[in-house]
Write a structure and sequence with these properties.
Strand content: under 5%
Structural class: mainly alpha
Distance between the termini: 39 Å
Largest sheet: none
Shape: globular
Number of strands: 0
Helix content: over 70%
Radius of gyration: 21 Å
């Protein structure tokens, strides 16, 4: 392995092959988030055993830019139209999660032995991949952040659907007009639509270019998670003002493979030794999420814009599409739930890094 170590032309392909092998195994054993976690674990094992794993320079900027691109594509003009009726509950959701992150992060910092950045970042209610990537910009421990966030997401899918089902059987259903969800999609046309042909390849290239340009600009600005948030904002603008924004979501899994490999490089034997000591703080965090879910849901229902069951789904810290689909089976207004999750994620990638940076400056 001494031939591979230090040689990017050999070590990078071998590192990615190790990651892909990890993905294959993770999918076979049905591990959650297999493309990221499988790659992360396999690269970590490979690196610990050989010290020969590596990734190209600026991989972090590329990965954050691509993650921001996919998040930006999730906000459509139809979502924007539906958002105007959900401003009050969305504001409650974001503010409550900001307070939750600040308070619980402070508790983790004081009693769990985490460094300041890691303590607050493990509490951020965002995506596992994206939140783990933030750790690099905020000098947190990406391995610990990834582990806790992964466990959080696994617990959310394990606990919340059953919990919300239990509640839904005891809360009287509210009348809902399905036709209200099917408003006419606002059509736009810009000069970009005239310049770029309506072909899959051209649209992919345009969207990736905008996402990467935004990410590079964000990195240049030097703001927390600037590559991710600026890429997201640029792609949102492209998506809302033209009909050419497009990138197949099936390619997101390959971004996850690269992100997992990047995080795997940060895992050392010292990280492995820390894992048993972080289980109790992780369980405390999950319990806190359950309690705050009920609180936020109750507060959102006071606006009379969303029912309690839908509010519970909307404030569950999981995936937008996943909980919208689960809600369609259990009961809940799926379009509202999806919009609220998108608002939460937009806040996570724009406001929350600034919050974490602020908390670190005070207590770190």
């Amino acid at each position: 392995m001494s031939v591979i170590a230090g040689n990017l032309f050999l070590s990078v392909p071998v590192t990615l092959l190790a990651g892909l092998l990890g993905v294959y195994i993770a999918r076979k054993i049905k591990m959650p988030i297999p493309f990221m976690l499988g790659s992360m674990i396999a690269v970590a094992v490979f690196n610990i055993l050989t010290n020969a794993a590596s990734m190209p320079p600026n991989t972090k900027v590329f990965t954050q830019s691509m993650s921001g691109m996919f998040i930006g594509l999730s906000l459509t003009r139809k979502d924007l139209k539906g958002l105007k009726d959900l401003i009050e509950p969305a504001l409650i959701l974001v503010v409550c999660f900001l307070i939750f992150t600040a308070v619980v992060g402070f508790v983790m910092f004081k009693i769990a032995g985490f460094d300041a950045a890691t303590a607050w970042l493990i509490c951020v209610p965002g995506g596992v991949v994206d939140t783990s990537l933030m750790a690099y910009d905020l000098d947190a421990d990406p391995a610990i952040v990834s582990f806790v966030q992964s466990f959080r997401l696994f617990s959310v899918y394990l606990i919340f659907p059953s919990m919300i089902t239990f509640v839904s059987k005891r809360v009287p259903p509210e009348e809902h007009d399905p036709s209200a969800d099917d408003g006419e999609v606002i059509k736009v046309h810009s000069f970009v639509d005239d310049l770029i042909p309506d072909r899959r390849a051209a649209r992919h290239i345009l969207t990736a270019a905008v996402g990467l340009a935004g990410g590079i600009f964000g990195k240049f600005l030097g703001i927390p998670s600037g590559a991710l948030s600026c890429s997201m904002i640029c792609v949102i603008l492209l998506n809302l003002t033209t009909n050419r924004a497009m990138f197949d979501r099936k390619y997101k899994r390959w971004v996850q493979v690269v992100a997992g490999a990047l995080i795997g490089l940060s895992i050392t034997m010292d990280t492995i030794r820390k894992l048993p000591s972080i289980m109790i703080p992780t369980f405390i965090l999950i319990g806190s999420y359950v309690l705050v879910n009920f609180l936020i849901s109750w507060l959102m229902t006071l606006t009379k814009k969303i029912d309690f069951v839908s509010a519970m789904f909307a404030s569950a810290p999981g995936g937008a599409s996943d909980f919208a689909l689960i809600a369609s089976d259990i009961g809940g207004e799926s379009p509202k739930i999806a919009i609220m999750h998108i608002v939460r994620l937009l806040a996570v990638y724009t406001i929350f890094p600034i919050l974490v940076k602020f908390m670190i400056s005070i207590f770190g």
